[in-house]
Amino acid sequence: MMNLQQRMAFHDDLRHGGAEHHRRLSSAMSSLWSRLQADPEAVAALAQILAPEAESLPDAYCAATERLRRLEQGISNEIAETNRVCREESASLKDRRDTAIDRRIAIIEERKRLEARGAPDEVIQARDRLRLAGAPADVVDNLVPLTGSEELRAALAAIDEEDRALALFLGSADPSHLPAGFDEKVKARLEFKASLKTLVTPTFYSIG
To answer: Which domain of life is it from (predicted)?
Structure first.
């Protein structure tokens, strides 16, 4: 069974020609199938190889057929389980992406509020101008540093680090980049959305 990342990596490997083992196995199965189609004795030999415990050739055919049936069913089950896991991970990934986007937007306003607590207006305005010009946060901090407390600078550093982690996740779709405790934010967001659906919209009736 593959998870979502493994499936994506597998198909990416196939697209870029790196799956040498896959090609070898596919070629071997193709050669075997060609031989079996052309030679009935090869089919009988395969049956005996698959069922060496059989006492007769008919018994070997029956046992080999059942083993191949179970093999096919096992392949189907494996693919079905991979599909299930990938569907669940895709849904989870979407919820995480949506929450990460919302959180990055909230961080912009949160950062502004923090800055406003510990810096003069002219400093805040200068920093805003740099941001509007496209300067990243670390450049803004170097060019127009805040003069607030250590506590303020620590709080700003913390949300900047959170923002960087979220950006890495959104760029890679790799949940390992998510900051600690992020899934609690996802859960809270989903619960809030669910609570909105339970609100009863008033119905107005006309008289007459």
So the answer is: Bacteria
Distance CA 107, CA 48 (A): 68
Where do we find the tokens 């191949």? Answer: 68
Q: Are residues 94 and 155 in the same domain?
A: no
> How far is the C-alpha of 24 from the C-alpha of 168, rounded, in Å?
36
Reported as a single tens digit per residue, the pLDDT across 143-153 is 887 666 677 77
Place of tokens 């949940």: 175
Q: Measure the CA–CA gap between 197 and 185, rounded to whole angstroms.
A: 19
Q: How far apart are the first and last CA of the chain?
A: 64
The vertex-167 CA angle with 165 and 170, nearest 5°, equals 110
Q: What is the pTM of this model?
A: 0.55
Instruction: Select from 93, 111, 129 the last residue of a domain.
Output: 111
